[in-house]
Design brief:
This protein has two helices and no strands. By secondary structure, it is mainly alpha-helical. It has a domain of about 45 residues.
């Protein structure tokens, strides 16, 4: 369980750094119109997929099956 929590912390840190980096670099790119909004939406979808895959699913596997 401790290893899972450490893994969750590392993944959240990586996701946060990636989010911060793209949010900082996006205004520097000369992109027309709605393209930055599309990039943000794709970024959110990708980060949510990573969070679901590497955080939510392992946590659900830790739930006891007998209540």
């Amino acid at each position: 369980m401790i290893a899972l929590l450490i893994q969750l912390l590392i993944i959240l840190l990586i996701v946060g750094v990636v989010w911060w980096a793209i949010e900082q670099l996006l205004p520097l790119l000369p992109l027309p119109g709605p393209i930055p909004q599309v990039i943000r939406i794709l970024l959110i979808m990708i980060l949510l997929l990573v969070i679901i895959t590497y955080i939510l699913i392992p946590l659900l596997h830790q739930i006891p099956t007998h209540l």
